[in-house]
Specification:
The chain is of the alpha/beta class and about 200 residues long. The chain has a 5-stranded mixed beta sheet with strand order 2-1-3-4-5, with helices on both faces. A two-stranded antiparallel sheet has the order 6-7. α5 packs across α6, α6 packs antiparallel against α7 and α7 packs across α8.
Length: about 200
């Protein structure tokens, strides 16, 4: 019997991933695989793989040869950066580990060999996720330009203490958007972080 890992992720702390877990448990039962670990993350999928504890745990199990399959509900659960997602797919493929994507019912490996359809789908879907973020950013920046043309003042002075600097460095992208005049809600969407995190950053600026 194959050993598998259930991998789930949500972007915001107030979101719940239990539905993902339950659905993937049913998948494991239908495929007659043994779930040896359930890895969950509450983190932006745009973060680098090396900064994500869940991804590092997944890779550690994979490198030890402890699993043969990874179950995810959709590609974006692995991440929203095309490059980072494809790095995960490539390493797991090299290790002979198949990734099963529930919403499309596809696997990266078929009979131990690369599934070209799945590889193409991963590339395409990861790129769509990236373009979605870019489109949102372009719309927001366009709105800001229009506001400037209408005489709206955008931006505010930056505060600084050593403790603030550390926190702001961690959320540099959030700080950058807030300094440019974006709203808390739009910044949270663009940076894929919780609204409360954006509010904390804003309070420190």
């Amino acid at each position: 019997m194959q050993q598998a890992v259930i991998f789930v992720r949500v972007s915001k702390k107030e979101q719940d991933y239990q539905r993902q877990v339950e659905d993937l448990r049913a998948v494991a039962q239908n495929q007659a695989v043994q779930v040896v670990a359930e890895i969950s993350e509450k983190i932006s999928g745009a973060r680098r793989n090396q900064d994500r504890e869940g991804i590092q745990q997944l890779l550690e199990l994979s490198r030890r040869g402890a699993i043969q399959k990874v179950l995810v509900s959709e590609v974006s659960r692995l991440g929203r950066s095309t490059v980072e997602v494809l790095q995960i797919v490539e390493e797991l493929t090299q290790l002979g580990i198949s990734i099963y994507v529930q919403n499309f019912g596809i696997e990266t490996l078929k009979n131990g060999k690369r599934n070209p359809v799945a590889q193409f789908m991963f590339t395409l879907l990861a790129e769509f996720a990236r373009l979605e973020r870019e489109t949102l950013r372009e719309r927001i920046l366009s709105g800001m330009d229009e506001a400037r043309r209408q005489g709206v003042t955008i931006g505010r002075p930056v505060g600084a203490t050593e403790e603030k600097a550390v926190f702001l460095k961690k959320y540099a992208a959030v700080a950058r958007q807030l300094r440019a005049g974006l709203s808390v809600r739009n910044t949270a969407k663009l940076c894929d972080v919780a609204i409360n995190t954006v509010r904390k950053v804003k309070a420190l600026l």
